[in-house]
Amino acid sequence: MPECIFCKIIAKQIAVSPVYENDDVLVIRDNNPQAPVHLLAMPKKHYAAIHEVPAAEASLFSDLFAGIGKAVEQEDLSRHGYRLVVNSGEKAGQSVPHLHVHILSGRPLHWPPG
Question: Which fold has domain 5-105?
């Protein structure tokens, strides 16, 4: 998807400094952080949302969460806690239509998130 900003980042058309990267997953810092630590983890294969991932591609989720685990370890986020957030659709707060997980940490994260 050439118009997708995350696809452009993954294709290295937009320069970023990855927090973590492997063949299937990219984790970057959010450029509009909502917490002192705000990372974005995304599969390199484009799907707009979780419900678009076909069952045959379910390994995408294990790859994504393994990458999140590596980023959490690398950034030492488990010491103070962290929250994972996935938004799906504009009304849920998804501003980039590419499946991604927000990793938030570094401040108290209240519940419900609202």
Answer: HIT family, subunit A (3.30.428)
